[in-house]
Amino acid sequence: MPDETCFPFPTAQEEADDAGQASRSGRQTAIPGLVLVSTPIGNLADMTLRAIERLRQADLILCEDTRTSARLLSHHTIPTRTAPLHEHNEDARIPDILARIAAGQTVALISDAGTPLVSDPGYRLVRAAIAAGCHVEAMPGANAATTALILSGLPPHPFLFLGFPPPRQAARRTAFARLRAAERAGLSATLIWYEAPHRLAETLADMAEAFGARQTAVARELTKRFEEVRRASLPDLAAHYAQAPPRGEITVVVGPASDEAAGEDELDAMLTQALQTQTVREAASGVAQALGLPRRLVYARALALQASQSKVEKAG
Predict the structure, then answer these.
(1) From CA 251, how far away is CA 191, in angstroms rounded?
(2) Residue 65, φ and ψ in degrees, nearest 5
(3) DSSP state of 4
(4) Alpha-carbon Rg of the chain, whole angstroms?
(5) Residue ranges of E strands in the chain
(6) I need a labelling partner for 278 at 20 to 30 A (CA). Which of 50, 92, 178, 285 fits?
(7) How far apart are CA 312 and CA 316, in angstroms?
(8) d(CA 176, CA 198)
(9) d(Cα 228, Cα 224) in Å, to the nearest integer?
(10) Which secondary structure element, helix H or strand E, spans residue 18, and what is its range?
(11) Is 143 helix (H, G, I), strand (E, B) or coil?
(12) Average pLDDT for consecutive 10-residue bins of the chain (316 residues)?
């Protein structure tokens, strides 16, 4: 967590000095409000001219970590004062930020990399600013999820961005099982996650167990010197990264379910096995819970399978 004592909010005198310098340099004052500014995900040149200008015009830049942002701001000669805003202090900072905006200031928000709020702090601030009637605008720019998507070679839309998977394996497997159940209910989308490099191999193994041998892309260090996009099946990628632990920022893109008939086959197989030792109601209840499917749907399928089996036995 950033050391806030090293980066306090600026005093009134410091802001007055900054305002005087801006006036002498001819810098124009932006519309009072909250500005969400996307920053590069690696290459410092991936910054829009409009975003640079807005950061120069702002009275204050809120950073996930001011030390991380200092390199970017220095590279683009952005002298605006900064202050930290992260998940641990966001709620406490909101009243002061809204007061600044109400007093006519422009406050910009950036994250360490990419688009603010996307797996980064700022959502609570934006909600509070909207509720207070503040002007809120966004400067579009780099985003790791969409960059990995267009490089993956997988269907670009629809896609579903899911942030980071749960770090603990039990919770992660549960999350994947629920997603698989949603696919059986009709969801069809390319799936995108961020992941930490030290968890990548075991996460890919859990994905392979949940989703099978789907085509997948693992994008690493996007826009940086050692950018890599590896495309293969989930089991192959899990095996590769188990032997070659990766470094850097990771984005995982998994292709959509190709044929939900396979899901129906799985349902029938589980019901057929369960019906050998259980009643229709018991079998339907257990399989519905295991697959995350509606009980009524599974019960109706169990009845159909039982009727079909009875006909076969009578014919024999």
Answers:
(1) 11
(2) -145, 115
(3) G
(4) 26
(5) 33-37, 60-63, 82-84, 106-110, 136-139, 159-161, 190-195, 215-220, 228-233, 250-254
(6) 178
(7) 6
(8) 19
(9) 9
(10) helix 12-25
(11) coil
(12) 47 56 49 96 95 96 96 97 95 97 97 94 97 97 96 97 96 90 84 98 95 95 96 97 96 85 68 86 83 77 83 67
